Amino acid sequence: MASRKSTNPLSILSRLIDPEKGDLCPEAAEGLLKINFKPGDAERMRQLSLRASEGHLTPGEQAEIDSYNYVANFLTFLHSKARKSLTVASSRS
Predict the structure, then answer these.
(1) 22: buried, middle or exposed (CB in 10 Å: 19+, 13-18, 0-12)?
(2) CA 80 – CA 17 distance, rounded (Å)
(3) What share of the chain is helix, strand, coil (3-state, %, to 5)?
(4) Cys-Cys with 22: which of 4, 11, 18, 88 at CB 3.0–4.6 Å?
């Protein structure tokens, strides 16, 4: 019997991006590493995290922090692949 792969959206993204495979050109990898949250979003995430740790999130805030967490995980996959790609490229030089 074949094993079923997770259909969790982050698991699917991880398989799609394959962050362990360093196959991006250096220019693309460097460009991906420049993608980050703007200061206003980073501050909002900090505020939501603080409220969450205090147990005071409204349902709307919970949905908001869930969205930020999803995007942060996606960005982590991209950055991991970019760093791996730069490592592979530098070892070939």
Answers:
(1) buried
(2) 10
(3) 70, 0, 30
(4) 88
The C-alpha atoms of residue 29 and residue 23 are separated, in whole angstroms, by: 9
Q: How far apart are the first and last CA of the chain?
A: 44
Structural domain spans, the chain: 38-93
Closest alpha carbon to 81 in 36, 30, 37: 30
Distance CA 24, CA 28 (A): 6
**The two structure tokens encoding residue 26:** 């250096």
| CA–CA distance, 90 with 73 (Å, rounded to integer) | 26
Quickly tell me which residue has 């869930």 as its tokens: 66
